[in-house]
Design brief:
36% of the residues lie in helices and 18% in strands. By secondary structure, it is of the alpha/beta class.
Amino acid sequence: MSRILLIAAAALLVTGCTAREGQQGPTTGGPAASAAQNQSTGPGCTRSTTGYPQVDVKGAMVGFSQSEKEANPFRTAETQSIRDEAAKRGAELLYTNAQSDLNKQISDIKSLIDRGAKLLIVAPLNSDGLQPAFDAAKAKQVPVITIDRKVTSKPCTDYLTFIGSDFVEQGKRAAQQMIKATGGTGKVAILLGASGNNVTVDRTKGFKDGIAGTPGLTVVAEQTGEFDRSKGQAVMEQLIQSNPDITAVYAENDEMGIGAVTALKAAGKQPGKDVKIVSVDGTRNAVQLIADGSYTAVVESNPRFGPLAFDTLEKFGKGDEIPQNIVISDDEYDSANAAQKLGNAY
């Protein structure tokens, strides 16, 4: 099995989308996603075993199907990383955004193939439901790499590989931060992510498993905020009314956690002090709140997949074996390092 190595740094933060993406203006950003050593798993895929033709990334049309609008900083950084790396590698990027609509994402992927994409990078909206799009890609012998969310289709058969975080481990790391911040005692509310994808399931499982041995921490409420700031705020407002003695919040992304901060302040509580807040992502706004004392900790979920995704496509094109799953390394932020590492946030 070949090891996927990262040698480039990606950039982020741009607005606007066009049908064909060229070189963008200067951007800034932290370290790109890199493969965690010894964590790439599963028997590998090669062109000889999958039957795909050789495609040189340089000069190729590469399609990128984004699942959600770039109002979310994770999506902004993710899209920009793909754009920047396509320009760096000399590929022509075809871009679509499904706007959180599964049927649109299926249609988008098919349209990318019809427009001439020879390689595809897909950020799935849901874990289920994209099989018709994968079937269309396979019929035209277009290899597909998925990033950031796993799908239930078969790697090395319906798509090549998944590149992303260990979401269960993220939940466990968030649990450890919560135990440390609360001293192992408190009433916890969980702001769940969107239903229908493995990120929410895995981050919930990891967190609950992580606090299982700490009987002083009790989950008293859990409700979906759909990875959205305004919905996270609305849910937190409701939970404060029904559970006024909540002392800790685990938000499954930063946007919901930031929404919770707003709700807590409006209720006369001091987030980060009266109520500990731990979330997953690594956005600049959340890390700044840690530095300011209004937030507790953030476990990173690195969105800068561009270099690693294009490295993987290049290796596959050369005939190298690539693993079914490529697990990336994620950092974390707390009061001890937030100010120092703010530049790494997105």
